[in-house]
Amino acid sequence: MSVNRFGELEVFVRVVEAGGFSSAARASGLTPSAVSKLVTRLEQRLGTRLLNRSTRQLRLTAEGCAFYERGVRLLADLEEAERCGSAGSAPRGRLRINANVPFGHHVLLPLLPDFLARYPEVTLDLVLTDEVVDLLEHRTDVAIRAGRLKDSQLVARRLGTTPMLIVGAPRYLARQGTPTTPDDLLRHNRLGANYARAQPGWPLHQGAELLTLPLSGTVQASDGEALRHLALAGVGLARLAAFQVADDLATGRLQAVLQDCNPGDREEIHAVYLGQGGPMPKRIRVFLDFLAERVVLAEPEAG
Fold this sequence. Notes:
Oligomer: single chain
Shape: elongated
């Protein structure tokens, strides 16, 4: 009769680490009686006692202690061998992605059909929000972050940068006038964001001076895409990423203003993930490589 020696070893290690047959049985999906018989059979095959049993506890013998320590190393080696052996297999499994709303709508969503066609055994769990989420708490594999990154345990992969533009709809500008100096903005409805990482104001050059104009509008929104729609509706001016409004500028739905006063700051876009050591799951690695290959942030002419 063939013997599954690694199976026996795994159960024995679980008995030692769980401190009893019942706990090890629950972890192994076996009955306590089956676990006890398996350990007894293992001892008979080895010709030595591995555990001293009593009604209250189990204690390792000297031989059992040596067998346990060597067994833990063997199981770790087996797990590593299986990881290496599966390196050539197709990526599969659920990939949890969190992205800010503008990047999600204008960059990520148009690319996902190609990613899914390339990796059909990967399924996506996608959340779009401009709030910064805790990757560990929300069980997120990859998050797309805009703006300066804070020091953390996250590993970041830079996807690009985008200029920021103040934009408004032609009908709004026809009604309120087109601003030509930062002071002109004081009579305009300056739409802002109410999420935690939002800038407190708009940076602008006034001559040689760099100033920050505070927001003072009738609406604050939870994401950049909501601000874009408000600007398109003629509610006010918004300061948005160039890739987000590239099509609107090209078609004339929005116009950029005060470009002579634009300080030229650029918002960085990163993909971040938890650096936990060991090999990165293939589903995450191929997604990061795909983003690096395919993400192109539009830089429209804003004259």
